[in-house]
Amino acid sequence: MQINITGHHMDVTPAIRAFTEEKFDKLERHFDQITSINVVFGVEKLRQIAEATVYVAKGELHASSESDDLYTAIDTLIDKLDRQLIKHKEKNRNHHD
């Protein structure tokens, strides 16, 4: 799984990069057909924004989150993507039954 992390109007520190990679590794445990992930962090009027597009077999998932704290935004983003991955997995499983 390839993770591309970029910052929009901000620098992505090694600590943020490591935290993000650790969180996204947890997603792969639930769904092993993730091919790549694009993550973009940004700042807009003192709000921290985290967005991600997850490319999976048979589609792609997108989510975004914002908070006063970037780490909180990342956690919320992971929760949203985790729910989407579970739905995607169930939908694909139902097509095979």
Explain what the structure shows.
The structure is a single chain. It is built from two helices and four strands. By secondary structure, the chain is α+β, with helices and mostly antiparallel strands. The chain has a single domain, classed as 2-Layer Sandwich (Double Stranded RNA Binding Domain). A four-stranded mixed β-sheet has the order 1-2-3-4, with helices on one face. The protein starts with a strand and ends with a helix. The model has no long low-confidence stretch (mean pLDDT 91). One of its GO terms (cellular component) is cytosolic small ribosomal subunit.
Explain the layout of strands and helices.
Layout: E1 2-8, H1 14-30, E2 34-44, E3 47-56, E4 59-67, H2 70-96
Summarize this, please?
Keywords: Translation regulation. The protein has helices at residues 14-30, 70-96, and strands spanning 2-8, 34-44, 47-56, 59-67.
